[in-house]
Amino acid sequence: LQPRIITALSPVYCVELLKHYPGALAVPGLIFLSTTGAELLYSNLGQIGVKKLRISWLVVKLILVINYLGQGAWLLSQETVQPGINPFFALMPEWFLIPGILIALAASVVASQALISGSYTLLGEAISLNFWPRIRVYYPTQHKGQIYIPMLNWFLWVACSLFVITYREPSNMAAAYGLSVIIPMIISTLMLSYYMYYNEIINHRLVLLFLMIFIVAEGTFLISILSRIWKGGWITIILSALFFALMYGWFFGRKIRNRYITFADLYKYIDLFKDLVHDESIPRFATNLVYIIHANRVDQVESKVIYSIFHRQPKRADTYWLLHIDRVEEPDTFEYHVTHIIPGILIRVDFRIGFKIEQKINLYFREVLEDLVASGEIKLNSSYESLRKHDFQGDFKFILIERIIPRDFNLSNWEKITMLLNNIAKYFSLNDIKALKLDSTNTILEQVPITADQPVQQRIKRI
Which residue, 171, 6, 5, 24, is CA-closest to 75? Predict the structure, then answer.
């Protein structure tokens, strides 16, 4: 027995260690290797509840302290310790060594779930907030917070394998892992302090005291980790910079594009739609022309749709369909609503789809058409007499519109860099054809300028 190990709980020894051995400042960085279990608890907060989390945290904390004190007691009881000996396994009786290894292996699997669950949650929220390109996300349960992202799963497998091969020992990756943990902690402390200060949750002096205590503690850990930055921490910085660049480009690139989004009043174009449908001088582009739109109001549509139909080469069709998809918070919502803006000519379909329902818009639209035909609201006969005589149905074409920025468009240098990052992020994004499960053989991707009326700073003069 080594009862004196209890004195290790006193912070005096930590201060004395740093006082006499300044190089030991790197030691606190190793503490963050023990936080993975806590990450797992918090990643399951939505499933297990706050009360159970607090009880579990106390149990985990107690077990960890006992475990580390036990290893310290074993080291104190040894006159010499051979290099490479792991105190955790060395203090086990010989008969328990194999079960102990299996338990430790199982614990490492549980710890890996913290990384996986946390990564899923972070990326899922980033996608919801438009900070990350759209990728395939699955919802295996009725809870929106429980998700599965195949692309991220493969990335984690490759990245973790490379880290294991590169670092080999847990102590070698202390700087990389510690840096990835302490920086979010500092950011969380600053954000929480800001929130409490400006919302007057508690007295301002208490907020400042809280901020000072945590910043000093976390700053000490940060300094200790930065002292080992060239021993693996630089990888964390590079990866963080790459992810930040993609997120910045995707978010602010979208804001630049959205700056030029305009909506048109559909009812101003009713006569134009009617005239275009009956204009025999224009070749028929398709019997049914389908556009995916984002305008929430029934009387509006994006100006790019009007530009696509009427400008350049007009697209004549018998019927124009406007499909609007609304993703709702309820998991199993699965319904649609039809609005006949111009009966038989211009029809809008609003889909309300729960987050758990897969977006198979091509299939769902076909079911809508079957319902409308059955109710007698529309007819799907071919517009070509020879085919209509043999009961052929009319053809359909889907149009997806991408707004592009012309090369001569006026953007600042920083905005050009932002749009470059945005275009790079697009390579990781799921395109609309795959996301909406459209028939790629029957879908046209059309490019239109981001705005048709860019202001001219200087007009050329005729001489």
Answer: 5
Sign of CA dihedral 380, 382, 383, 388: negative
Residue 391, amino acid = D
Contacts of 311 (CB under 8 A, 6+ apart): 452
Amino acid, res. 268:
K
Q: Is residue 246 part of a domain?
A: no
288 vs 105, 309, 324, CA distance in Å?
60, 13, 16
- Smallest CA-to-CA distance from 361 within 445, 305, 435, 287 is with 435
pLDDT of residue 290: 94
Q: Is residue 318 part of a domain?
A: yes
Residue 46 domain-assigned?
no
What is the domain count for the chain? 1
Q: How far apart are CA 337 and CA 393, in angstroms?
A: 23
Identify whether the C-beta of residue 315 lies closer than 8 Å to the C-beta of residue 307: no
Tokens of 405: 């920025």
Read off the pLDDT of residues 142-171 as tens digits, 9 standing for 90 and up: 777 778 889 999 999 998 888 888 877 766
- 312 by DSSP, 3-state: which? coil
**What pTM was computed for the model?**
0.78
Residue 302, classed as helix, strand or coil, is strand
Residue 57 in tokens: 């945290």
CB 329 within 8 A of CB 319: no
Quote the domain boundaries for residue 292.
263-449
What radius of gyration, in Å, describes the C-alpha atoms of the chain?
31
Position 22 in a domain: no
Considering only CA atoms, which of 35, 57, 175, 218 is closest in space to residue 111? 35
| CA 392/CA 382 separation, integer angstroms | 6
Reported as a single tens digit per residue, the pLDDT across 383-419 is 777 787 777 888 899 999 988 888 778 888 999 999 9
Sheet holding 284-293, edge to edge: 334-342, 346-354, 316-328, 284-293, 396-404, 443-449
Other Cβ atoms less than 10 A from the Cβ of 42: the count is 14
